[in-house]
Amino acid sequence: MPHVLSRDLQSIHRSVRFVGSMSDSLVRLGPFSMGVDGVLSWIPFVGEGYSTAAAIFLLVQGARARVPLRILLSAAALMGGRTVIGAVPLAGPAVADLLTAHKWSARMIAGAIEKRMQRGEATGAAVRASRDAPFAATAARRSA
Known about the structure:
single chain, 144 residues, mainly alpha, 7 helices, 4% strand, elongated
């Protein structure tokens, strides 16, 4: 798997946080919040479609950023459960509005990405230099 550059990791981090907050936190009323997911959950099939698409996006971004598998599986279970609950007529959307699974999953994935960035696992020039070092040594011997 190719190395992830730090600027790519930062971009993935921003997109994960954006989708998490857009899905579940556009409007706050006291301790409650609602986002695109909560509004669309009242429209049959549209809510499930959005929820599934947002979940896939978050999981793919997490995989691109090499988030640990246990976090990706936990996030998938959270978002999958929320989608299934939301599919139940009438009561499902009401309960699903209280479950901000996309926001919770985005926080888990973003937290794992932040840890990678703090440890400095993603680099730019250092990765390219270490990857190209054997070729540079060979080229230097040939030119000498």
